[in-house]
Amino acid sequence: MSSTSAATKMSRLVFNHYLAPRIFSNPAHLTASTKIFTALSPATVAGFRYLSSSPPTAEDKPNPENSQTHQDVKAVVSYWGVTPPKFTREDGSAWPWNSFRPWESYKADTSIDVKKHHHPATFTDKFAYWTVQVLKYPTYLFFQRRHMCHAMLLETVAAVPGMVGGMLLHCKSLRRFEHSGGWIKALLEEAENERMHLMTFIDVSQPQWYERALVFAVQGFFFNFYFLTYMVSPKLAHRITGYLEEEAVNSYTEFLKDLDNGSFENVPAPAIAIDYWRLPANATLRDVIVVIRADEAHHRDINHYASDIQCQGMELKEAPAPIGYH
């Protein structure tokens, strides 16, 4: 028996009797690991090939029967015991989305008042209001009636406040060893909902390179601006977001006007939108804009409410968060 064959058998013996039982708790995984290990050449097993100075044997040469070895290694995705779940729609068809689950879909409340406006009374309110006004005019001049591109930029910005606020409240909760009153979850829900708006729009239209560059610059500026603002004054940050959501509602109202007068083609709704908002199968882009506008109106209310809580000298944790408020 050559020294190479002896080293290979020894390495298999060590792996099967000592290492494999510690690594693979599932017998099925042990069987799979044994097959994979058996297929490996001595050069790849713990350096045993270097124990011998003999020339390569037939075992060392490529074998057509082992051509799927690399593919087999990739297939062992359950090494950590995590199996990708499978879901179905109500009609029994496979659920195609990994970004959200069936129970995370919902029917939007489109009866909400989309014309509601918080009148700026205090200095904080006026500062927040005019901050949003200053930020909105350059984008209005740039996009004009190109609603789809404007909406995509809007969503990349609107998804920032919920994530920043949720992240900072999360860290605060950890530092102080206290509950958040559900506000961490509520704000992260808002951020995820805004991101789903964007995922819907990119199924309808793709931005140009210069629009992507604009998004990159605007999001980078706004993230840092909002982060610092929230650190200094959360009530100001939430008020800014409230006014930002008011502008989003107005923007989608203009979008609906152009869809109704034929200035913008009312194409079929993307499949992701139909599943996410539980829209009818024959839903159109107009139906999607209606539910997105309703979402923005709810976000408007949540953030103005959060600011009001703190303006009254209370902390967010003292008032239950409107989790699942759509």
Report what the structure shows.
This protein has 326 residues and is mainly alpha-helical. Helix content is 60%, strand content 0%. The protein has ten helices and no strands. About 16% of the residues have low confidence.
Question: Could you write a compact summary of the structure shown?
Answer:
The chain is mainly alpha-helical.
Q: Please state the average pLDDT score.
A: 81
Give Rg in angstroms.
28 Å
Helix share bin = 55-70%
Q: What's the end-to-end separation, in Å?
A: 73 Å
Instruction: Give the ordered list of helices and strands.
Output: HHHHHHHHHH
Please outline the major beta sheet: none
Instruction: Determine the strand fraction and express it as a percent band.
Output: under 5%
Q: Segments where pLDDT lies below 50 for 5+ residues?
A: 22-73
Number of strands: 0
What's the helix count? 10
Overall form:
globular
Q: Provide the structure class.
A: mainly alpha
Topology:
Layout: H1 3-23, H2 27-39, H3 69-75, H4 123-143, H5 147-176, H6 183-201, H7 209-232, H8 234-260, H9 271-276, H10 285-311
